[in-house]
Amino acid sequence: MKIEHIDLGCRPVLLAPMEDVTDPAFRLMCKRFGADMVYTEFVSSDALIRYVNKTQEKLTICDEERPVAIQIYGKDTDAMREAARIVEEAHPDVLDLNFGCPVKRVAGKGAGAGMLRDIPKMLEITRAVVDAVQMPVTVKTRLGWDDSHKIIVDLAEQLQDCGIAALTIHGRTRAQMYTGEADWTLIGAVKNNPRMHIPIIGNGDITSPERVRECFDRYGVDGVMVGRGAIGCPWIFREIKHYLTTGELLPRQPFEWYLEVLREEVRSSVARLDERRGILHIRRHLAATPLFKGIPNFKPTRVAMLRAETVSELFDIMNQIPILLPFP
Questions:
Q1: Which of the listed residues 246, 277, 294 is the one where a domain comes to its end?
Q2: Active site residue 30
Q3: Which of 224, 246, 268 is the last residue before a domain boundary?
Q4: Which one is catalytic: 30, 62, 101, 215?
Q5: Model pTM score
Q6: pLDDT, tens digit, 9 for 90 and up, residues 81-102
C-alpha cells in the first residue's frame, strides 16, 4: 500500500490517532513492535493557530517513528488551512484530517464527526487543505451521522475528488460512539467501488491477529488501523505481524515479559512529563490492558494500581501480581 510516495508494504497495520494515548513514547513503542505507521493525538486547528503551547507540543515527532502522520480537526476552513501550513513546518510524512471524532466537545461543536452533518463544509475544508500543502493529505471519518444517514460510499468518492491520498473509515456512525459492533461491510463496499483508486484503511474492533487477517481477506482493505486494541497492549502489533507473515499465532511470552512492557510505558510516561502527571497519564493503559484479565480476585490490586501516586508505589504493586496468577 502506498500513500502517494510513502510505501507501507503489503497489508500494513497502523496505530490509530487517540487523544491522551498516542503520545511520542507510545508511538515509538508501537513502532518498535511492528506498527507500519503511527498517528499523533488529534490537534485542534483553532488552538494551533493561536500557538497554544500544549497544542504545539503535539507536533513533536522524531525520525525513529516515521512514517508518522499528524492529525488536525476543526470546523473553520481558514483555520484548518492555516493549521495545515503550520503542521507542514513540523515535517510529518502525512497530514490527516479528523472528520470522525464522536465526542460531544468536538462533534457537538461541528468538528470531527460533526462534519458528517455538513458535507459541503467538509469537502470545502478538505479541498482547501489539499491545496494549501505539498504533502499527502488523508482523511479519517465514520460511516455517517446515524443509521439513517450511512453516506460513506458516496462520501468516499467526494473526498477522493478533493485530492486526498488515502481514506480511513471507522465502521460506526457518530450516533454509535464506540458502542455496538463496527460494520465492516460498508468499508468493504467503499473498497470494492470501482471508482475508488486511493487506499482504503479499515478501523474498528481490531483486537486480535485473526480479526486483522479476516478484514484483509473478506473486505479487501489496503490497510488496517488498530485503535483501542492497542491501549495497554502495544505488543498487539508484534502478534499481528507474526500472524500475517506465518499464519500462526505467536507463542505467549512469560507473564513477566508483558509486565515489563507496561513498566516501560510507565517509565517513558514519567520521563516525558513528570512523576505525578506521567502516572496519571498511564493509568488509562493500566486500566485497559488485557494482561490482567482472568486473574482471580484482581479488583483490589487493580484499584491499588490506579490509586498509586509514585513510581515506587506502583511498581511495588505490579511486582506482586505474578503471585496472584492461577498458573505457575
A1: 246
A2: no
A3: 246
A4: 101
A5: 0.95
A6: 999 999 999 999 999 999 999 9
